[in-house]
Amino acid sequence: MDRHIVCYQIPSFEIALARLDDPSLRNRPVAIASSRAPRVSLQEVSSETQDDGVYPGMSVEEALRLCPSLRILPPIPSRARVTHQDLLGVISRFAPVFEPIRPGQFFLDLTGTTRLFGPAADTAARIEREVIQRYRLPGVAGVGSSKLVSGVAAKLVQPAHLCDVRAGSERVFLAPLLVTVLPGLSQASAKSLVALLEDLNLRTLGEIAQIPLPHFALVFGRHARLLHQWANGIDASPVQPPVERPSVETSLALEPDEVDDTRLLGLLYGLLEELCRTLRRQQRICRQLILTLRHSDHLEVTRCVKLATGTYWEVDMYPCLKGLFFSGFKRRVRLRRMALRAEALAPPQEQLSLFDMEPSATQKNARMRRLAVALDHLRERFGNGAVRWGTNSQVSR
């Protein structure tokens, strides 16, 4: 059975989402960067910047020198994550197996679905139309017999278009393309391999495909077989379904925006209580804690810590959470939103310690845990607002 692989993506995903929120950004040169500091690298650029020579990875300083009208926006990972999940809801209806690559980009394996949905190209077109109708996000799609061919095809078309490379024409399709279009070259080896190909005057994939593999291997060694297969459109890598990583998340929108450390720590402790209460109810412990802070100027900062021991107790997590807060909240710009997520979840395991802690520390932790369980019962019976911590208690914990 012939494979039918589709690469579907929203080009410049973060920029497309920003233009939905602010229509004035349309048809203007836009880039995404974590800040406007001169040495910060651009993460995404819009198609309007190509004529000026601006590309992802370029420094902000150089990009502004080439394109003075460039509008630089901060990334908003939470917005991209939510929209990415919405796109998954559309794609999962058509593809029995799909692989998310990054926010806004997917590989779909439509092998064997022809009798159900029709040809793969028609299915890809249906997905494009539905995403445009629902979310006003124009995308591109490449259809081929492998992830390599479909990924290259999607890179060559503009929204909202589709490129269908029929089985048997992969080598003809790839022949005139430059070697740099290959998405599989690792960053470590790409520069040296491309430089060596240029020295040998091999610039296109068709020129590589014409060289016998034994001759090619004399120069490129262990990379020769893979490069030669790619140049001929051969790629047997499967579409890998996403691995589910359960997590628990809670967030708080601040109204009005807040900058006071004391109040923010108190609100953050409330988020931690809600998170731990959910973990205890689900009987799962957390081994990784992630804190996301969004400033008033839409800049998001994310900090992560791995816990030495899995736990679902506030008294164990709060010292780590407090450190995350102060490491992430260094800009004295008001916060608009805080989000706390627990990952690397597992069933609780009771392990006795051979060398117990000091009696005072053990007794304090036991008291705090009994207090947390008592507060859980009160809030389940009378609501979350039944008991609140005072300011001094929040900061001292």
Q: Whole-number average pLDDT? A: 85
Strand arrangement, major sheet:
5-6-1-7-8
Strand content: 15-25%
Distance between the termini: 62 Å
Low-pLDDT runs of 5+ residues are 393-397
Order of helices and strands: EHEEHEHEEHHEHEHHHHHEHEEHEHH
Shape: globular
As a whole number of angstroms, the C-alpha radius of gyration is 26 Å
Helix content: 40-55%
DSSP strand count = 12
Per-chain topology:
Elements: E1 5-9, H1 13-21, E2 30-32, E3 44-45, H2 60-66, E4 71-73, H3 77-91, E5 97-102, E6 105-109, H4 114-117, H5 120-135, E7 140-144, H6 147-156, E8 162-164, H7 170-174, H8 187-199, H9 205-209, H10 213-220, H11 224-231, E9 248-258, H12 261-282, E10 286-295, E11 300-311, H13 314-328, E12 335-343, H14 359-382, H15 391-396
Parallel strand pairs: 2-4, 7-8
Antiparallel strand pairs: 1-6, 1-7, 2-3, 5-6, 9-12, 10-11, 10-12
